[in-house]
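User: Hello! I'm new to structural biology and keep hearing that structure can be predicted from sequence alone. Could you demonstrate with Lipoprotein? Please show me the input and the output so I can see what each looks like.

Assistant: Of course. The first part below is the input, the amino acid sequence of Lipoprotein. The second part is the output, the predicted structure written as tokens.
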Amino acid sequence: MKRLLSLLAVFLLVAGCANIPLESQPVVVSGDKPGQAPADVPEPAAGIDPLTVTRQFIRNSAAPGTASAAARVYLDDDARRNWKPSPGLTIIDDTFGTVYDTSSSSGNPDEQVVNVRGFKLGTLSPDSAFLPVKAEYSQQFKLRKQPNGQWRIVDPPQELAVTDEDFALNYFRVPISFYSPDSGAFVPDLRYVAAKPQAGLPGRVMDLVLQGPSEGLKGAVKDLLGGQVTIESNVRSTDDGTLDINLTGVGGASLVDRNLIAAQIVLSLQTVTLSRVRLLADGTALVPEHEYWRSSELPNYNVDIAPNSELLGLMTVNGRVRSLGDGQPVGGPAGNGGYKVVSAAQSVDGKRLAVVEERDGRQWLRVGDLGHDLASVDLFGGSLSRPTWRPVARGGGGVSGEVWTVVDHNTVARVTLAADGRWVKAGVDATMLTGLGQITELRLSRDGSRLAAVVNGQLVVASIVRTADSVALRAPRKLQERDLKDVVDVDWATQDHLIAATSSTSLPVVKVPLDGQRMDPFSGSNLTPPVHGVTAAPSRQNLVADAGGLWVASELGEVWRPQAHTVTNADPFYPG
């Protein structure tokens, strides 16, 4: 806890120094009255050429101030009065080109057209979520020399483009929490808010809580506020440092829902404030006799989706399942050779095992209690991907309720436990995912709201939307499409970060947030490419399998070390 408080204090200090206009919004907005740029925004340096004007306009578009004031100073008077950029941002690579367009020259020496070319990395959508994009970026800017001799842009684009570096400097990523009834857990929805002013961070985060989940997560989680709840006044800090939040519209919400609403707000705010939170509903305590809140006082809603520390993980080796803890075979046919195991997965609670068995020239799914005979399921094909477990909430806790796999690289299938104890097939509408190509790996998030997949060697995430009679995959998105290729395996390190292994010698293992906004490579030291497997889990060492065996590392900068029971040809997996 001390380490968390220290890190947050450092962030707040840094955020307080960022050069961002006062009272900015979580997304770029045009403002109701564009008008002239505010007097406190300095004019560009005198005498700069059209190329420099254009580049500086782009670099200053990242500052999310009222009416995009920092960028507006590069426009002529008419454009300053009339320009209304659309909400959202396009994020481009830091390296982009600006050249004069000779083909559209008017012959007027006081006019120039500048072409800007680069690569799109993504967009910041109007709901403040990052959407990865792989595309070329091109835009024309027309500039005219003003009576005072300075070059200014006369036709600014409605779509603002900013560099990746400037976006990172001006925006702060916040995991907004939303509740998943299926797993009984809170699910992070990565969103971006202006990093300064520091005092306004809680208010901007609270705005996103009230807006509900982003488009990519809608339907996969419950919006506890339902679009009906608002705040009566601005989020404010009192003299004693308490954050006051006064809700209205909560109405007849049950005590259970009121506690969940409180948890959602406090969890969403914990990355931007150290203060205690006072939660009111129409002037009285949101939760009776519990007016003040801290994140440390909340129940651990996610306890059932995190593997117990005593569950050390398993591995498949030469057709058998063994323990990562001592290297010994597990009990039953899965460990003693009774099944020819191709791959396997242990449930999050550790009690059950699903294996893909090879027999009669086909691959079949078996599921049952760990250490016992596993029932053969009527699910088979030429190939089945390694199984993955989805928790289902029962009696308030997550249990091992479903097993998913991919049949022949193109059919996403799941089996559920029926009332009579049999594991039976159930449908998944995976059209949006299968339309992207061949699926070789599939991993469900341990909170059950999302999945990560390897499709045609690329990393893809999608949300899982469940209704009373259907399950569908929605909003599939390719992560780091331009730079992350030849992916062979993936796992969830946390609820909002993935670890991926590739067959590349230069980029064998990487860490990627679930929105793909960045990518961080692990060290390649000691690894013998190609890496063919990876597993990860909260508060666990990252574990990879290469040509030489099993290797562990806890942090990005660490050198990989041999796992205690390393063996060649092993495929490791943590519960989930």
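User: So the tokens describe the shape?

Assistant: Right, they're a compact way of writing down the 3D structure. Reading them back into a model, for example: The chain has three domains: 50-170, 172-297, 314-573.
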